[in-house]
Structure formats: structure tokens, C-alpha cells
């Protein structure tokens, strides 16, 4: 595997604008736009960094820019959904899943409307912009909202496939949580083959000693960690739990029974995130195993360039492998 995900140049704005290949929602919606006139898209002065402009330039009459008014944008999306449209709302996750949380809860989740919320640049991807631009609480916020589906795709293929599913067959509000779009892909696009389905986890690697359950960009880093652990004699299963709510409980319980140890990995506070969701499944099922959550340990990130921060917080492949070894003893 290459090491481009955390390469320093991908955080240099002018060097990396053309590198956001994994932000595929806009191009997917543009492809679906003619057959699905109910699709509309909304942004808040960030249509190019989120790549929602890929849809906007093809369908300018169905694209709306709200400026720096994210809360108004969410409420307007709810209004459009109430008329039968399927609005796709995209901005940075700190401004969507965190800042606009009350509007999402009251205007979108409560009436159970078909609004698709895409929070990009989540976690600490905006590291040097400061805590106001970080989003390490958005999983816990949105998964606590009744009716809300919460998805953290591993890459652009996964995002595209589940965005398309959300247009064609899925009912109810969805919060998609994605990074900067400049990461290494996990999935290879295959013609007429869907590899990611909402609510169904993907076992990307089998193993017998440990299961790593990850979401978002940490899926690829967990695969790197698993490779390093294998070289040290630790057979490691890796599960891409892209849908955090509703969770694939069967995948979790099989992992607990078959490997006896689960490590969850997320670019999020361990309080209320992916790890907490997995723990809830285990406790309510009565299935016991060795268990650890890894992410941000109820703390705010330091301010700095993310490629240093991922190493510092052991959220890169090497760091995850070291956490796993310590966990297993």
C-alpha cells in the first residue's frame, strides 16, 4: 500500500485542490441527475472543496448556495424534502454535524425526512485551522438522533455506491461522514458490482487472534496495521463498519465469538462514537470478549498539521498496530 494518505503535501491547499478524488458525491449525483429530477444540492460557500459543484455545474437550476448560513441551509433542505425532493447538503463536518445539530434534529430527523447530509473534512483533517474546524463529536451527536442513519465510508467508491443507494431505494435522513477526499482508496471500482450496502459491514481481511473494526479513513490504516501484526504472528481480521447506525450486529458478534478480541478504531472521540456503538451491541447480546476503543480519549486534538497529529494520536497504521499489541498483551 502507498503512503499518500498522510503525505504532507495533501494538506497544502493549493497543491491539493485537484487531489480530492475520493469526494465522489457530486459526480455521482451528476450521473444520476437526469434520471432523478428529485435530486437537489445545497452548499455554504464550500461547493468546490466538498466537490458538490460537480453536480451544480451540470444542474445549476437545482443547486443552491447559502453562504455562511449552514443552519438555514439545513432547514431549507427539510422544506424541499417535504415537497418530495431529495436534498443533498454538504459542507465541512464541523459546520454541519456539530454547528447545525439542532436544526438537523428538529427539522430533519424529527419529521423523518429524506435529507442527505454530507459532512466533509471531518475528524482532525482541518488540524491547523483549530478546534472550531475539527469534528470529533459528530458520530455521537447524529447517532443519538432518532430516525437518523449514520455512515462513514472508507473511500470514494464506498461513498458513491451508498449515495446512489440513498437516491434509489433508501428512506429516511442520512448523515455521511467523510474526510478530505485525498486519501488512498480501499475499494477498486467494479462495473455492475456493488461492494458497499447501507447497514452491511464488509470483512476486508480474515483473522483469528484479533478483530479491528474501523470506519472512514481508519479502515485503510487498520489494513496497514493488520499487515504489520501478521508479520509478528498476530492473525488480524479487519471489518469496515461504514454504517454505524444501524449497525451490522451479526458482524460484531461473529468477530467476538471467532477472534475473542475486538479493537475499534475511529477518528473521533471514543465517547459515543463507533467504539461505543460496538460496545452496546456486545453488552446487550451477552457475548463477551476482550475489548478496547481507540480514537481520541475524551480530549480535544492539539493544533497542527494533521500528518503529524495522526502519528501523535496513533491513528496511522504503525500507531494502530502498537495499540493492538499493547491491548493483546
Automatic annotation (TrEMBL):
- Kindly list the cofactors needed: thiamine diphosphate
Q: What Pfam families does the record tag this protein with?
A: Transket_pyr, Transketolase_C
What keywords tag this UniProt record?
Thiamine pyrophosphate
InterPro entries attached here?
A: PDH/Transketolase (IPR051157), THDP-binding (IPR029061), Transketo_C/PFOR_II (IPR009014), Transketolase-like_Pyr-bd (IPR005475), Transketolase_C (IPR033248)
The record, for Gene3D superfamilies, names:
3.40.50.920, 3.40.50.970
Transketolase-like pyrimidine-binding domain location is 19-186
State the family named in the UniProt similarity comment for this chain. Belongs to the transketolase family.
Recorded hits in PANTHER family, A to Z, give: PYRUVATE DEHYDROGENASE E1 COMPONENT (PTHR43825), TRANSKETOLASE-LIKE PYRIMIDINE-BINDING DOMAIN-CONTAINING PROTEIN (PTHR43825:SF1)
Task: Please report the name of this protein according to its UniProt entry.
Answer: Transketolase
Amino acid at each position: 500500500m502507498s503512503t499518500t494518505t498522510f503525505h504532507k503535501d495533501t494538506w497544502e491547499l493549493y497543491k491539493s485542490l485537484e487531489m480530492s478524488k475520493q469526494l465522489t458525491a457530486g459526480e455521482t449525483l451528476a450521473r444520476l441527475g437526469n434520471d432523478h429530477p428529485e435530486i437537489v444540492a445545497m452548499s455554504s460557500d464550500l461547493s468546490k472543496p466538498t466537490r458538490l459543484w460537480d453536480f451544480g455545474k451540470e444542474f445549476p437550476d437545482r443547486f443552491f448556495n447559502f453562504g455562511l448560513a449552514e443552519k438555514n441551509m439545513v432547514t431549507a433542505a427539510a422544506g424541499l424534502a417535504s415537497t418530495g425532493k431529495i436534498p443533498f447538503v454538504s459542507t465541512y463536518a464541523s459546520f454541519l454535524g456539530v454547528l447545525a445539530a439542532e436544526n438537523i434534529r428538529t427539522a430533519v430527523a424529527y419529521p423523518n425526512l429524506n435529507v442527505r447530509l454530507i459532512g466533509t473534512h471531518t475528524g482532525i483533517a482541518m488540524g491547523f485551522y483549530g478546534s472550531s474546524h475539527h469534528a470529533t463529536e459528530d458520530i455521537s451527536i447524529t447517532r443519538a438522533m432518532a430516525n437518523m442513519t449514520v455512515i462513514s465510508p472508507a473511500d470514494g467508491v464506498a461513498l458513491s455506491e451508498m449515495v446512489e443507494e440513498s437516491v434509489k431505494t433508501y428512506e429516511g435522513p442520512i448523515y455521511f461522514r467523510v474526510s478530505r477526499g485525498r486519501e488512498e482508496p480501499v475499494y477498486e471500482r467494479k462495473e455492475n458490482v456493488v461492494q458497499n450496502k447501507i447497514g452491511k459491514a464488509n470483512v476486508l481481511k480474515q483473522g483469528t487472534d484479533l478483530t479491528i473494526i474501523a470506519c472512514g479513513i481508519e479502515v485503510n490504516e487498520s489494513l496497514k496495521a493488520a499487515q504489520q501484526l501478521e508479520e509478528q504472528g498476530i492473525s488480524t481480521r479487519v471489518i469496515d463498519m461504514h454504517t454505524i447506525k444501524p449497525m451490522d450486529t451479526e458482524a460484531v458478534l461473529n468477530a467476538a465469538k471467532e477472534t475473542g478480541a475486538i479493537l475499534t478504531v475511529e477518528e473521533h472521540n471514543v465517547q459515543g462514537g463507533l467504539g461505543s456503538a460496538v460496545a452496546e451491541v456486545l453488552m446487550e447480546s451477552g457475548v463477551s470478549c476482550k475489548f478496547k476503543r481507540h480514537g481520541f480519549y475524551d480530549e480535544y486534538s492539539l493544533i497542527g498539521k494533521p500528518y503529524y497529529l495522526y502519528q501523535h494520536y496513533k491513528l496511522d497504521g504503525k500507531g494502530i498496530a502498537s495499540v493492538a499489541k499493547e491491548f493483546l498483551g
